[in-house]
Amino acid sequence: MNSPYLRRRITNALAMVLSTLATLIGLAFLAWILWETLRQGISALDLKLFTKVTAYGEDGGLLNSMVGSLVINFIGIGIATPIGVLAGTWLAEYAHRTRLGESIRFLNDILLSAPSIVMGLFVYTIIVLPSTALTHGNTTFSGFAGGVALALIALPVIVRTTDEMLRLVPSTLREAALSLGVPQWKLTLQILIRAARSGIITGVLLALARISGETAPLLFTSFGNNYMAINPMDKMSSLPQIIYQYANDPGDAMHALAWAGAFVITMFVLLLSLASRLILSRTKVSHD
Question: What is the pTM of this model?
């Protein structure tokens, strides 16, 4: 056996061992985090968690925070989804190999890794402060501002996913449609987006899971509220914000409520991940 071949075999085996070890270490920490969340969260679950608001303190629940999280998250995903899908479609179909398209993809990748607190400060500057000045303090922090901050976090995820999913559609499908005289806009809307629909929906669900646990931008935008708030223009509580608040409290009862909130968020993100997997698996089966 010659030495170059032996050296490649040894290098390959060493790389496999190191990769497997790194994977096992990462999975071990992930399993540990999930186990602690499940153990601590399940023990803190109670009926009052879903029926009482945070105004009751350690004798209360998280109802207003759960409702606030749903309102803020769906405002954010409702703003980000149409803009992200349209932007991703433009990048994939109209700016595929242009310098402008590559520049926008580069900027979008930067936004993907931007700290979420920066988004919160940005929205605080462009929405919270002007609304406070225009309404003479009647409208300051709000659930809408929190939704805009989360939309800025979800937007690059949806743009990137839509762009990638549309670029994965075979070019022969485009050529066949164009050869039959189908206009570009009809090709994009009725053929390409339909072909990449499952991937785009998965990207939206992953973006929703991404923003569900954000805390920092909400501290500067929605701020929090100990009572039930449905109006998006009011201060609004959220699960990540109340978990942060209760985790800093010295009382064990408040810590238990924080663990319960973490458990609820974990289950919500898990359900979203399972839903995205289900959508992808059904599409693969239907195409086979």
Answer: 0.85
